[in-house]
Amino acid sequence: MIKGGITAPRGFKASGISCGIKEEGPDLALIYSDVQAASAALFTTNKVKAAPVLISQQHISDGRIQAIVANSGMANCCTGKQGLKDASLMAEWTANSLGGIPKESVLVASTGKIGSQLPMEKIGPGIKEAAANLSRDGGKDAARAIMTTDTRPKEAALEVELFGRKVTLGGIAKGAGMIHPEMATMLAFITTDALISPPLLKKALLHSVERSFNMITVDGDMSTNDMAAILANGLAAEKGEEITYPSKEFDLFQAALDKLSIDLAKQIPADGEGATKLLEVKVTGALIKEDAGRFARAVAGSNLVKAAFYGCDPNVGRIMAALGQAGEEMEPEEVEIYFGDQLMFRNGCGATFDPAKVASIMEQKEIRIDIDLNLGEAKATAWGCDLSPEYVQINAHYRT
Predict the structure, then answer these.
(1) Does 177 share its domain with 88?
(2) CATH number at residue 327
(3) What is the DSSP string of 96-127?
(4) DSSP 142-190
(5) Do residues 264 and 299 both lie within one domain?
(6) Interval 226-249 mean pLDDT
(7) What is the pLDDT of residue 400?
(8) Is 262 a member of any domain?
């Protein structure tokens, strides 16, 4: 891991500016590659899809993208034909501001309140300003510009050696509420200077998303605007070495992308709306990996479990109930549950534990819950957060 974010790889610039969509703070981000990049993206599976999702699904179809424009404050969702027109205009204005690149090489993303038309009279000049302010130092500004109820920007970067040279990956993400993904979640943008084809890039992204963004939850609600996109411009390949499959280089690239994605994904529930604790739920001993993932997400997403951890209540019965609701094969008498290194459940009933040690574990900002089903070899990890009264306060007045 290295310092940096979306502009850490070669040939990428970014900016984040305020154009007045939100009452305060930056609200328009632009990410740009010096050359057209191989690209892949995953989008929400919600049947209600925002206009920018529909436009971006069209633009990504050929696997080549050069820029991403994203606004916060308004989701451009449930906005009818005008919303589609506005999302398309955002791509067109961005393309023109970047010297006339094809508008189809621009991804469009929006996040914020659902049901309001975008203030295009503000966004148009904002896109021009964002293009004029592109720089290698603009990654953090872009990370701030896509925030809504987030309390802090989310970014990460790392280096991996491929073909004897350093290849860099960087990314930014946003998300604090409406987090319970079925593909990716929130907005997540990743860049790399690796040389790889669009089909292989899609393969790698799918693998990473299943182990990162698809394994987080804050409140059990899926967004209408979710998008995870990756751009690979190939500028690290000085002699044209392209990642192929199967190969050692692909395996290394996949491991690097997994690590970066997990880092970004964990930052989201850690900053969940009203959250005070990050919960890591590791399930082992399942029959198949899909079962392990469903068990882990069931526990991480249980409101009763989340509330118990907010109150430092070691209510292991709620975890067992959540496991039972997952609907997969399990034997309650075989389950073992640990909070940190403290055994909490075994042989079908609660275990005797040290109250002081468990209280100390539950007061920590990051808490690990280990669950062994003792049925097989499959495992999975999910991340969530506790549930506090502040979550209700934030969402009771989100539009007002």
Answers:
(1) yes
(2) 3.10.20.340
(3) HHTTS--GGGEEEEEEEESS----HHHHHHHH
(4) HHHHT-SS-SS-EEEEEEEEETTEEEEEEEEEE-SSS---SS--SEEEE
(5) no
(6) 96
(7) 62
(8) yes
Residue 4 lies in a domain: no
Q: How far apart are CA 389 and CA 396, in angstroms?
A: 11
Last residue of a domain, one of 213, 236, 270: 270
Answer yes or no: is 108 within a domain.
yes
pTM for the predicted model, two decimal places: 0.94
CB 224 within 8 A of CB 41: no
pLDDT tens-place string over residues 104-161: 999 999 999 999 999 999 999 999 999 999 999 999 999 999 999 999 999 999 999 9
CB 4 within 8 A of CB 139: yes
In a domain, 211, yes or no: yes
Domain boundary among 246, 270, 294: 270
Asked if residue 185 lies in contact with residue 35, where contact means CB atoms within 8 angstroms, the answer is no
pLDDT at res. 181: 65
Tens-digit pLDDT profile for residues 172-217: 999 887 677 665 557 999 999 999 999 999 999 999 999 999 999 9
Tell me whether the omega of the peptide bond preceding residue 9 falls within 30 degrees of 0, making it cis.
no
For residue 204, what are the contacts with CB-CB under 8 A and spacing of at least 6?
Answer: 40, 196, 230, 250, 253, 254, 257
Number of DSSP helices (H) and strands (E) in the chain, helices first? 11, 14
d(CA 382, CA 371): 12
Based on the fold, state whether residues 337 and 221 are members of the same structural domain: no
- Which amino acid type is present at position 291? D
| Whether residue 103 is found in the same domain as residue 175 | yes
Which pLDDT value is given to residue 12? 98
Structure tokens at 41: 């993206």
pLDDT tens digits, residue range 26-73? 999 999 999 999 999 999 988 999 999 999 999 999 999 999 999 999
User: What is the Cα–Cα distance from 294 to 316, expressed in whole angstroms?
Assistant: 18
Instruction: Name which of 384, 80, 332 is nearest 220 in CA terms.
Output: 384
- Rounded Cα distance between 385 and 302, Å, is 10
Query: Hey, what are 222's tokens?
Result: 């899926």
Domain shared by 252 and 371, yes or no:
no
- Residues with catalytic annotation? 185
Q: In this structure, what are the phi and psi dihedrals at residue 226, rounded to the nearest 5 degrees?
A: -55, 140
